[in-house]
Amino acid sequence: MIRTSISLFVLMLFTLLAAPALVLAADTVCIECHGGQPGPLGEPVGQWRTSVHAENGISCHECHGGDPTDYAMAMSPDKGFIGAPEYADVPDFCGRCHVGVADAYKGGAHGQALEAGAAQCVVCHGNHAIQRANLDLINEEACSQCHSYERAALIRLSLVETDTMINTTEADLERLYRLGFAVDEMEDGLFNQRNSFHRIFHGVDVERVRAETADVQAEVGKISNQVAEIDTTIQERKLWGSAVLGLFILAGVIFLLVRKAYEEEERG
Ligand code: HEC
Ligand code: HEC
Ligand code: HEC
Ligand code: HEC
Ligand code: HEC
Fold first, then answer.
1. Which among 24, 75, 128 is the best mutation to test ligand 1's pocket, defined by most ligand atoms within 8 Å of the CB?
2. What is the pLDDT of residues 95-136, one digit of tens each?
3. What is 164-192 written as a DSSP string?
4. What range does the domain containing 58 cover?
5. Pocket residue to mutate for ligand 3, from 125, 145, 147, 204, most atoms within 8 A of Cβ
6. In terms of domains, do 142 and 228 share one?
7. Nearest CA to ligand 4 atom 18
């Protein structure tokens, strides 16, 4: 009896949790109808399924607007449908959600030269199969389509250097955490630095990237100095530990020798 009600409860919980995800991420009328279309009308569905957006429940209508529950009126402008954006409208289209990135982008050389055909969001990230971003997006093939790679390479260099430093410090903090040290404050500091770090790229300005990554490196450097201090303490503790252990062994040996001498004396 109890067992049945527990499994019933679990089932209900599961349905409650799964239902919104199914409605939003899989079963919209947009996906149903477009999934059955040939060519460019159908392709977005399969591509989108592999994306970081699908993974996070951002479906067609979150980007394109419209009513995901009304088969007949789904794409009516009255239902908020905005369709596919023109080339120069993409930054605002994506910037509804990625506000900080879009601001950095607009203030930089690409944003300023947008009307002249500079790279915008989907040129670098794609549109429907967007994956988590990383610095490999900066590569000669992608960046030399419109200009030389030289400046891009300098930007990449500063960013990779800082990225490596952040990752090393992260690994150090994990190690200390596993040893039982309180690392919350350092974790928070690193988290903030990582956030500001990932905002630097979109301004595509070599001097600013250098100055801002230097700031991040200085702050991360402070955290790794704290790590080094803790490591020194650990070393000292180990040294003291072995010294104390050595003393104990010595005391033991002396004790045995003394006892042996005493026993021999007793016998003799
Ligand atoms: C009943 C089938 C059907 C449904 C439902 C449907 N679409 Fe479409 N969609 C189409 C067809 C057909 C086209 C191409 C002709 C046109 O633009 O009307 C299209 C075109 C589009 C375009 C390209 C428009 C452009 O500006 O070039 C987008 C974006 C789009 N649909 C998104 C959606 C979204 C988001 C939903 C759900 C809110 C949706 N569709 C629901 C059939 C459908
Ligand atoms: C992250 C935002 C985003 C999501 C989510 C998204 N789209 Fe799009 N879609 C775009 C952008 C941006 C364009 C404009 C194409 C371009 O500039 O490359 C576009 C274009 C389209 C077009 C026009 C295709 C063409 O080649 O002209 C269709 C149709 C479409 N999307 C349907 C869908 C459907 C169906 C889904 C859900 C499975 C979906 N989109 C999900 C951003 C998105
Ligand atoms: C010239 C290529 C390029 C353009 C244009 C571009 N991006 Fe990026 N984007 C990148 C690269 C490279 C990264 C990785 C940067 C990093 O890890 O520091 C990235 C990272 C991101 C991230 C992850 C940020 C984070 O905090 O981890 C988001 C979100 C993003 N871009 C969205 C956008 C949007 C929205 C636009 C348009 C307004 C855009 N990107 C334009 C190349 C580009
Ligand atoms: C309706 C809101 C919304 C829109 C519009 C949108 N995104 Fe996203 N995007 C998200 C969410 C939510 C995530 C996952 C959470 C996160 O990591 O930021 C995400 C993740 C990303 C990531 C991975 C971030 C990372 O940490 O590496 C990139 C890149 C990205 N989006 C680019 C775009 C681009 C390009 C567009 C326009 C074509 C766009 N997004 C439109 C909400 C949106
Ligand atoms: C679709 C074309 C296009 C692509 C692709 C492109 N850019 Fe650009 N980029 C431009 C335009 C246009 C400008 C502004 C005019 C100029 O400075 O050449 C610009 C300017 C720049 C600048 C500033 C130049 C300066 O004077 O310092 C940098 C840095 C830059 N881009 C980096 C990149 C990187 C990194 C990538 C690849 C991830 C990339 N670009 C991909 C078109 C593009």
1. 75
2. 999 999 999 999 999 999 999 999 999 999 999 999 999 999
3. HHHHHHHHHHHHHHHTT---HHHHHHHHH
4. 15-84
5. 125
6. yes
7. 98
